[in-house]
Amino acid sequence: MDDVAFPVGMEAILGDLASPVLPPGAAWLKEWRRRYVVRVAVPGSARTVILKVCRLRSPFSWLAWRRYALRELENMRLARQRGMSVPRPLAFFTRRRLGVVVITGLAMEDLAGWQDLRTLACDPAVGALAAARLAIAPLRRMEATGAFHADARDENILLNPSDGEFSVIDWQHAAFHPPGAPWLLEHLAAYYIRKSDETAQAELTETWLPELAGARPAAETHAFVARVSALLREPPSTRARRALRPGRVST
Fold it and tell me: Which of 7-11, 114-118, 138-142 is predicted with the least confidence, judged by mean pLDDT?
């Protein structure tokens, strides 16, 4: 893959990830279900990288191992090709036992110092509405490029505090549509609100949605808000969101 190079020193980092046994100084960033994310230093340099690792424990996941890190790598490359700001993937790797893939993972550039919007939303000095306003640019970029992120919640949108640039992470379940595809922004907006703090959802629906709609005629903005509200009332499945199926708007 033309934008993926296995960095020197990565083999020393990976070791036996099935345990997982991590090198001293590794920073454990996140863990959920069978997956975890860590920051590790590349031996012999001052460089750090992010490892996203998935441990496969069922016969189904062993057979479907390409659905995890490899699919995310492919989606990240497609998103970058469409002009989305995405961390640069560095390496895809697997570990096998008795010929079966039991570990699959992705190494990517470390955006150290960047802040996710969930952290900003929880900061009393910023708040959920101000953080959501920072999400407008990346969400509109997804609409413009047709790169639909199926998990575009606040914690997956990172902001560089030095220049205000953004980057979007966690692309495993993405889908790709023609630029400006109908219903794309509505699904992104509904999901973003639904995954925000419950105490902020009413304000985001009332205040933020019209701002996200942008410079549209009043009737189109009203229709946009109505369609997002329909998706909030009846949350679609991930498959339905990726297919951009519209919500049912009451008349």
Answer: 7-11
- SS3 of 34, please? coil
The helix (H) or strand (E) run that includes residue 228 is: helix 218-233
pTM score, whole prediction: 0.89
CATH 2.60.40 describes domain 115-242: no
Look up residue 33 and give its two tokens.
């279900």
Q: Identity (one letter) of the amino acid at 22?
A: L
* 94, 65 Cβ separation under 8 angstroms: yes
**Confidence at residue 24, expressed as pLDDT on a 0 to 100 scale:** 64
- Residues 94-133 pLDDT 10s: 888 888 988 888 989 999 999 999 999 999 999 999 999 9
CA atoms within 13 A on the CB side of 55: 14
Output the CA torsion sign for 201, 207, 213, 217. positive
Pick the CATH number of 10-109 from 3.40.50.2300, 3.40.50.300, 3.30.200.20, 3.40.605.10: 3.30.200.20
Same fold, 10-109 and 115-242: no
User: Where exactly are the structural domains of the chain?
Assistant: 10-109, 115-242
Please calculate the CA angle 104-142-187 and round it to the nearest 5 degrees.
90
